[in-house]
# Entry
Amino acid sequence: MRRWIAIFIVLTLLLATQTIVLPIWLPFGFVPDLLLLTVVLVGFWKPGSSAFWLGLIFGFFQGWLHGIGWWAFALSRAFAGVFAGWMRTQWLWQSAPAAGFCAGISTIVAETLLSLLLALSERSLLPIALFLTVGSFEASSNAILGFAFSLIRRLREVTM
# Structure
């Protein structure tokens, strides 16, 4: 029960930050996808099924907020968490640069899958055009934030 309460609190804080705080602070209107970053970092730090389920929950909620394609968001986020865990277990070691790299690549994979699923369901190329305009920013910002969060996490583990 505590785990579900913690997931709900984290989801609420991330959504509030992503939808209210960051659009005010960032000048261009592009906002990093903090929910996807959380799923990817959980997949990187704890490979296994926890990132899959967290990706399904966060993706469903994010799709519900967008109003369309909740299933596409859920599938892409769950796949991104599993992909990040796979990258970690295949050849990456657990370090801050590896987490940043994994966050960037997993973001590209998730957003590509999301745009393809939405393009197929809507029978339109607009989701692919949106991916081409916003995808590189999201990937680079998630890579930078993934590196920073992993570095802070690593420093906290060393000092404690």
Notes: Helices lie at 2-25, 34-45, 49-66, 70-90, 96-122, 126-159.
